[in-house]
Amino acid sequence: MVRNGAPLIVVAEALGHSGTRTAEKHYAHRAPSNVADTIWRTAPNLELPTNRNLSMKAAAAWACWD
């Protein structure tokens, strides 16, 4: 589910967890590119670099840059 882009809250609920902390601890690393992909999908008006291979941290930093 995580590798296919399911939000961690959905994964946590499907597994019976009361919150996302356990899912984050055990499953978030399975989809490190999801953060960068989500930034590009949800913020189309940002002037992001066209390099989709940008690291997760670099994409997040770029999107949050003021």
UniProtKB/TrEMBL annotation:
<dbReference type="GO" id="GO:0015074">
    <property type="term" value="P:DNA integration"/>
</dbReference>
<dbReference type="InterPro" id="IPR013762">
    <property type="entry name" value="Integrase-like_cat_sf"/>
</dbReference>
<protein>
    <recommendedName>
        <fullName>Tyr recombinase domain-containing protein</fullName>
    </recommendedName>
</protein>
<dbReference type="GO" id="GO:0003677">
    <property type="term" value="F:DNA binding"/>
</dbReference>
<keyword id="KW-0233">DNA recombination</keyword>
<dbReference type="GO" id="GO:0006310">
    <property type="term" value="P:DNA recombination"/>
</dbReference>
<dbReference type="InterPro" id="IPR011010">
    <property type="entry name" value="DNA_brk_join_enz"/>
</dbReference>
